[in-house]
Specification:
This protein is an all-alpha fold and 90 residues long. Helix content is 91%, strand content 0%. The longest helix is centred in the middle third of the chain and has 54 residues, at 13-66.
Amino acid sequence: MSGILVVQLFNREKRSREQFERINRDHLEAYKDAITAYGWFYPGGGVPGMLVLALLLAYSGFQIRDGNLTLGVMVAFFQYGMRSSGRSRT
């Protein structure tokens, strides 16, 4: 009786291998598509953030020069912003 199960399993080996190769190929293609999308869209996501940061720093510099803002307040503002952005990801 136990030999019948082994014979049945080996008889299905070719079909199982073909099924595995098809599934594996589908996963490979999906992974390649994900890498391509990441390469196109991720760098573009950082540019607006850096632009906003540069604008805030420039605006803060002008405000400090005019006496409307102190350097300590600006540093505290940016440190708080970096701290709270780190918490929002969790």
